[in-house]
Write a structure and sequence with these properties.
The protein is an alpha/beta fold. It is built from eleven helices and twelve strands.
Amino acid sequence: MYNFWPYRQKKIKFHLNKKKIDDVENFIKNKFINSYPLYFSSGRSAIVSCLKSFNLKRESIVGFSPYSNACIFRTLGNISTPMALNKEKDFDACLIHNQWGYLQKFDTNCENIIEDSIDSLILNSKTLFQNNGKYEIFSLSKIFGIPFGAIVFCKNEDLLLKLKLIRDNQKQYSNMQIFLKYLSNFSKIADGYWQLGETYNAYPGNAINDLIFKNFINYDQIVEDRLEKIKIMENFINFKIDKNRLPIILPIKINEIQKKEISKLNKFFFLERHLNTSFNLNNWYLEKFFPLPIHQEVEKEVILNVREILKKND
């Protein structure tokens, strides 16, 4: 059965990789021209590091998207006081979640904005910082299905140098964290320790650098595959898709008959999820959809089967 994101590959090399952290960052910088990328151990550790760069205190209020999951609330709570975004509230920092790859706007005077685009597939650097953020975060595990890792694009070089210093001061437990991540594939106890310590170790180490390169080499193929699936479903997509920022999920409206037929495919864990369809967090409105995953693990034949079910039972 298909999940929202590709399943995580369990293979982690504990010997020295040929590629180093600088190699990863330089490769990404060359692929996305005029960008300032930093490689982190995970999306949550990246969020905490970005918040630290703002010099926040416990009483500082950090706004977050109202449909975010509980782990985001806990992550923000490591540094400050989290609160759902509200147009009438002044925030010391904001975390804006572009759910499933769909851009969410938030009109605010807040100067410290982090854009959480963990599962967006971007084609170039021009699509970054649509909410005038200082940082934008992408999860390598959710895009590629690799064991861990995230990329933070910084607005400028000064922000990159500041964030790099914070990251590099959090590497004393890097190897232990990597080992716990490997064990978490087989042990709930190890996974619990990884979850507890994840935000405190931002330094990624070198254990999967070769794997990251291998996946980025296939990046253009992943983009092409995503575009083909969007084309297959174009008559059932309710929203305009930015061709420079591709979603990982297509939110599809389905009736009860369609839901029953899709469930018979036995391919999907979820048949209903919410999305803010105003795409503006100042006036958000949640609607239920069938979340159709279109990442690289989902076979095109399955997408075609879903399209046929929608056609026959419209």
